[in-house]
């Protein structure tokens, strides 16, 4: 099987590009690890330059008086411009990623901006404008992201206006757009020689993975790719002759299903909210954590969702694939595993169902530290365990038609804070690894241990 990627931006602009499909639609991946090729500047103690004036249609360079450091605690909110909580929550999670703080906190990013990208470098400049204002702002103040919102609407019309939108959909556009604006086309990785499908089938899965990963990097090589991009491998095994075929695709995030039996409506969210409210009135913080632990003891875990995502699937009937050895359509077993792990792993909980247009409000227990992804990896136990620590997540409250997004992020001071548009407050974190909010975790951001 040969993996082919379709750009998110190409779907918007009608232009051909080699970027990221939705993992939902094409659940397959790519592999191999590469050493970082992007300069990481140490910015502590040095002045930085912020891009200003995009909201008024002009661009000027203003020297900031405050250096940006990965240890800086940023407690600056983002103003809600009218149902823009979906954008604000996603931005706060991206802003709080250490690689993002380091890369965009220095000046090296300017050398990577490409004027020949679909957005002519405008998106990355608008992103940096808001990022710098947030990182250098006064604690518990707020920033107006109107300039960035206007740029997003220009290049993604479906995200324009002030209707409710999906936080993960915005994040997909943002990462893909930033990757295009920073795409290192001039010094791209050499594209491997084209191989026919029958030639690829003779290669090991590891060699096939490297082949497809290098082809991807030959068209998509940027700081964003290096930081957020991973690779999935889809294995299809013929039930008749056990012949295996592989397919690889890159991903920015994994859309993970929730196990069956989850509650719909507001039942679970309401009960957690009640415990939180009672806890704030009657309990100390330790007691409140215990209450949260008790309330969520029967909840679905993130590992349950990941097991479902990678569980084998039987392909039969009209969907039977053609076995390359049998030369016939055969009943087969398909399984998806992660082949290449990115430094920042983004996990999207599939809470919204279509066309039924309902929301699954199942509480998900997710670890703050030591998320072990080895069970869901193609590689054997001799490889280093891919361990991840949570640093941020978005939360969705309410229904599909009338909901609200917030972000909860771990800041440089080691504490957790909830970013509710303009308002920033310290978050309640359970000792057992449960982060308490009156709602449902929607997109989780994990940082890989080094």
UniProtKB/TrEMBL annotation:
GO terms for molecular function: cysteine-type deubiquitinase activity. Residues 76-449 form the USP domain. Pfam families: UCH. Coiled coil: none annotated. PROSITE patterns: USP_1, USP_3. GO terms for biological process: protein deubiquitination. It comes from the Eukaryota. PANTHER family: UBIQUITIN CARBOXYL-TERMINAL HYDROLASE (PTHR21646), UBIQUITIN CARBOXYL-TERMINAL HYDROLASE USP2 (PTHR21646:SF23). This is USP domain-containing protein. It comes from Triparma laevis f. longispina.
